[in-house]
Amino acid sequence: MSARRRSGRGAWPFVGGFAAAAALAGVLYFALRPAETPQEVREERLKQVESEAAPARKALEPVAQPEPYDVEATLRAVRELDLAVKSSGSVRQFLENVSRGDYRRVAPKLLESRKRIVDVLVKYYGALDKQKQEEELWGSFGRLSDELARVLQATDIRATTPLGTVSLNPSDPARQKVLAEERAKREASRAATFAEVQRFEEELLYALDAAVPVFREVEDEWMRLCAQRDRVYLQVAAHDYADAAQSARTALELAPGDVEATLLLALALIERDREKPAGERTNEVETLLAEVLQREPDNAPALVLRGMSRWIRGEASEGRSDLELAASRYPLQADRLRDELDPYSKREYLRRTRQGGRVTAIYRTMMLGANHFSPDLQLARAQLDAGDAAGAFERVKDHFARRRVQGQWDLVLYDLEFCEELLGDRYREYVPEKSYLDLEVEEQLIGSEINVTVNNRSDRALRNAALVLAVRFTDMVEGEYTTFTVGKTQPEIAPLARTKFGSVEVSYSGLGELKEFGDAVKPLRAVLICDDGVFFIDTIEHKGELARTAEPAPHAPGSLAERLLDFAQTLSSENLSIGRTKNLVSSDSLEIELPRELVLLGPLFHLDVGSKSFDEARGDGVEHRIEGGKLRLRFDSVGKALDGYPGEVRLVAESALGNFAVVLGRNEAGNYVFRRVELP
Fold first, then answer.
1. pLDDT, position 173
2. Do domains 238-430 and 434-538 have the same CATH topology?
3. Do 441 and 452 contact (CB within 8 A), yes or no?
4. What are phi and psi of 499, to 5 degrees?
5. Right CATH number for 238-430 from 1.25.40, 3.30.70, 1.10.1610, 1.20.58?
6. pLDDT digits (tens, 9 = 90+) for 347-366
7. Alpha-carbon 194 to chain mean position
8. Phi and psi for 578 in degrees, rounded to 5?
């Protein structure tokens, strides 16, 4: 098989061509009536029909291919022809819709087979005598086309028609028997036209039979391409850009000019070249994208990638221009996902695995301007690299404001992934108090509704706040979530207070059966979208789990983890205070104040007194908040434990960035005071 194609996947596109033709097999037995029109009138009608059909035939006429044909365009064309039946109200309108199609990069062999089927339809249509017959023909054609489009997706290509369940293959004995019986019943009343009807029937069915292997051949090419292209998607998701580039080149060998593979190759080369000195970066990306933009000048992902490429090569002005132009083109690009012709609309099976979910997720980010393909996030990244942190975070706000207006909440998760992984430490420093926002979920006694509250343990107010719950249900792969908007947008999340967002029904039927709150895999997470930023918030219990199970952060020179742990080592009795509060009823409390600079760690604390631990993550009577420029900790009812343990006690801070411990010892007056800081 010649490897000369471009993109797509699955058996679904082929049913369109079969459905339109196969429907005629059913209607041929009851749509025609004995001729009641003089021969010369019939001949005039045939000429008129031929004239009306000429533009459609011309559109389907294979032309010399100046470059390899496009597999995806080929499959979209078949699907388009199928959908033209649904959108048309008559044969005439159907032919008009076909004539407006653009089939320039469609496989000639497929156009030839499709044109043969249309030719039979035109010939049949031209032989009709009455308007009533035409309406009957078209009504049956439309209904059966839709039904057969579903039936024919099975590997056994059989269809339920008005004649019963018959094979579409003319040589099938069962089909021949059914046809013979039907002909015998109608022969007496249709003697004058029987021979002509029989020719139409056989011609149509043989045209359909000849089209089957052509469709299957193109389908096989597409499936091979998709398997290779999916490999590229997964390598990009894993940030394995060197292998992604090689895999994308292999995909382009299978389908020269494939847009998706070209975009993925360009992305892999850009990310790989970021680590190279400017003099070692090639112009290959520009060449790749020039071919895409020549065919599709408004291709938003290609404009994003060209902007990125130009920026890292030092052409900041040109790069910014491309990225801003891409932002204006994404509304048009997004329409492809709502297009019934889009091949990925029929690839829901990919969501059954984590890997498949990543493939469709990256494709959607490409179409909708998220993650790597967000013009605003890429501009933010570039501006951060250039030292313009204030301008960069304004771009981040612009991006999430657009996402908020669009209501594409599931994409927010992928956008946050980009921010946290590729903006890195700098994004952690954006709204540093975010780790002091806790998600609180209360299940209602009846039904699947839950009440959701945000506990703000910081002294910073957050305004215009919307909350989106991210839930993974049983049978969902790890890392995949469905989203629920909670309540209504709140004008403010007040400092040092709890803000109720309201209730939300947590149910989902996207996995084939209804899932309710009891099927939700804990922990639940949420995304907070406000004027100040966008970030994940979690329950206090999940924060503790993350802190204890996180891989040690790499302490690269100048990294946030290194800076914060270096700062922790400067703690002393001069910037740390310890006080004991006497309680008349309960045991005394211990209060500790730490410098606010530690807020970026997002720490959770526990106080270890011998074998006893007072743990914030477990809710053991620990209050931890930002107030008055300090991190304020209060451990309730620890006085008795302290009095019974004369040795050193440890205040342990746990964080995904790293841990440290402040060791306290008892002085001569019996009070606990600062002794030293210990790092792992």
1. 61
2. no
3. yes
4. -115, 120
5. 1.25.40
6. 666 666 667 777 877 888 88
7. 55
8. -135, 130
